[in-house]
Amino acid sequence: MVKHFYETLYILSPDLSENEREQVNQKYKDFLEKNNVEILKFDPWPLQRLSYRINKKSQGYYVLLEHISPPDLIKELSREMRLDERVLRHINIKKAERLDISEKRAAIK
Questions:
Q1: Which of 33, 44, 64, 92 is most buried by its number of CB atoms within 10 A?
Q2: What CA–CA distance (Å, rounded) separates 83 from 87?
Q3: CA 47, chain centre distance (Å)
Q4: Phi-psi category of residue 90: left, alpha or beta, with phi > 0 → left and psi -120 to 50 → alpha
Q5: Taking the model in full, what pTM does it have?
């Protein structure tokens, strides 16, 4: 199975409590781990001001995920995030094809 290196960035609503943000983050981490995806980096950011309003919100919590996963799983992840009202926006970026996993692990550590 071909796997690629992806970066996923999503913005959570500023109305969420810390516990609710943890639940959302855990939902996506569980989704990826259930599908045998290796999460290389998980980086939740504090409340940030948005460049423009999204759904009448001017702030949001950014979360950055770097992971190695198959291409077909990204479509399902995007679908899950689109349907979740707590996620204001998301983007998945393919950073590298057929990545040498050992090189990426060494670069992160």
A1: 92
A2: 8
A3: 16
A4: beta
A5: 0.84
- For residue 90, name the pLDDT band (cuts at 50, 70, 90): very high
- Residue 49, SS3 per DSSP: strand
Domain with 57, as residue range(s), is 4-108
Question: What single DSSP character describes residue 83?
Answer: H
User: What's the Cα-to-Cα distance from 85 to each of 11, 13, 19, 109, rounded to whole Å?
Assistant: 11, 8, 16, 34
Q: pLDDT of 33-84, one tens digit each?
A: 999 899 999 999 999 999 999 999 999 999 999 999 988 999 999 999 999 9
Which residue has tokens 């996620």?
Answer: 87
- The CATH number covering residue 88 comes to 3.30.70.60
Encoding tokens for residue 65? 């995920």
